[in-house]
Write a structure and sequence with these properties.
about 180 residues; mainly beta; five-stranded antiparallel β-sheet; 2 helices; binds dtdp-4-keto-L-rhamnose
């Protein structure tokens, strides 16, 4: 398992080893002990799985506020997506900065996102599936979102001149400057 620390403290890009043979491959998609050996011991309690039918579907930027903040371990089950985490921790030296990575079925990469980040993604292929572990249960009363195309964050989304598929909630999300930010570093 290759574990790469990123420039924003707490974010990790993880590439599990794949054991290929004539049947296909085998891979450990999460191993608590291995991550604990790198100082990250997260008690994941919920797994999420969603399918996005069209290219250019955007979900996010989302977070859950304390006391139900969530760390997430994100991977792509089918297709290809651009996954993004935004540092929303007030006082963080990288506050407001974002990191994005292509996660695909083929590359098997995973993004580990601690509490205090906004998370979102854009699909790059039809029928793309995302699967992610969460460290707290869904708590709709703590659910929040920020506009995915907020100019203050300035995410360089890979697809530009297409009609994005976005939920009504995400279309009407507040800006990064205006959202009720519960996170500190
Ligand atoms: C997130 C979530 C949603 N739901 C329900 C609520 C709603 O009726 C339906 C669809 O919810 P949403 O529109 O919020 O789904 P979606 O836009 O896919 O929301 C997700 O986006 C990504 C980027 C994240 O990081 C996740 O934490 C989550 O916020 O599913 C649950 O039952 N449990 C959950 O954990």
């Amino acid at each position: 398992m290759d574990i790469q620390k990123l420039d924003i403290a707490g974010l990790l890009l993880i590439t599990p080893r794949r054991f290929g043979d004539e049947r296909g491959f085998f891979s450990e998609s999460w191993n608590r002990k291995v991550l604990a050996g790198h100082g990250i011991d997260i008690d994941f309690v919920q797994d999420n799985h969603s399918l996005s039918k069209t290219v250019g579907t955007v979900r996010g930027l989302h977070f859950q506020a304390p006391p139900h903040a969530q760390a997430k371990l994100v991977r792509c089950g089918r297709g290809r997506l651009f996954d993004v985490a935004v540092d929303a921790r007030k006082g963080s030296p990288t506050f407001g900065q974002w990191f994005g990575a292509e996660l695909s079925f083929d590359n098997g990469k995973q993004l580990l996102i601690p509490e205090g980040f906004l998370h979102g993604f854009m699909t790059l292929e039809p029928d793309t599936e995302i699967i992610y572990k969460c460290s707290d249960y869904y708590a709709p009363e703590c659910d929040g979102s920020v506009r995915f195309d907020d100019p203050d964050i300035g995410i360089d989304w890979p697809l530009k001149d297409i009609d994005f598929t976005v939920s009504a909630k995400d279309r009407d999300a507040p800006s990064f400057a205006d959202f009720d930010n519960p996170f500190t570093f």
